[in-house]
Amino acid sequence: MKKVYIIAEIGINHNGSLDIAKKLIDAAVECGCDAAKFQKRTIDVVYSPEELAKPRESIFGDTNGDLKRGLEFGQAEYEEIDRYCKQKNIDWFASCWDKASVDFIAQFNPPYFKIPSACLTDDELLKYHRRYDVPIILSTGMSDLEMIHHAVNVLGRENLTLLHCTSTYPAELSELNLKCIQTLKKIYPDIPIGYSGHEGGLATTYAAVVLGAVMVERHITLSRMMWGTDQPASVEPQGLKRLVRDIRAYELAMGDGIKCIYDSERPIIEKLRRVK
């Protein structure tokens, strides 16, 4: 079977620190992930002045705007992230929440653009991503099949991957609805289907792969006890390492489906089978 592409979603778990971001990249590499992913926003475009002015205490200040701006990396930080990921031989890309962010991330020649679930209904942003010849990953949280079908029609099916997703942090097991992976595979047999998980634990992500997910995304954190809204829905390095290990073991164990006698079985045949 084809190797599952495993993404360590760093997102905003770096808490505005390039040093923490590098430690999370190191963890993704150590765990055997294929890519590290960030998020990019133009704050004054994505959020209204009223939203930014709302009171919200954080390590950056007393308003929501203080928080959002404190978590946002700029040119210098992403140049260093690009350099560091190339040094560590791991892919990186970002979820782009607005047109300017698409242009910004495009300068680094990413292997993918990621469109977050929140932007699935933004036709103009979907179309804007297609200005670049970059494969697209679309998360499908907060969406029904009609919304997904519309987004697929806007984007086109070429170089598109859909990720089944439930957009709560952390997500309840009863709302993961993993059978939707098979539903999407039946509806879109020509589009790769993956899984973006925000649940606690790892077993359901293994199950997503068994159900046919060819791409897996899980948030990574150095510690779920760290400050930050996404930390509780994230996986610590030791857990992510087990996840990658067991997905790779599953891939190896699947084989080719052709029933045969292995050479390693022949001595057992001689020892135990009376009628040959």
3D structure, described in words:
The chain has 276 residues and is an alpha/beta fold. It has one domain: Alpha-Beta Barrel (TIM Barrel). Helices cover 41% and strands 18% of the residues. The strands form 2 sheets. The protein has an 8-stranded parallel beta sheet with strand order 5-2-1-10-9-8-7-6. Strands 3-4 form a two-stranded antiparallel ribbon. Helix 1 (18-31) packs parallel to helix 5 (75-88), helix 1 packs parallel to helix 11 and helix 10 packs parallel to helix 11 (237-254). It is globular, with a radius of gyration of 21 Å.
How would you briefly describe this protein structure?
The protein is an alpha/beta fold. Helices cover 41% and strands 18% of the residues.
Properties at a glance:
276 residues; alpha/beta; TIM Barrel; eight-stranded parallel beta sheet; 12 helices
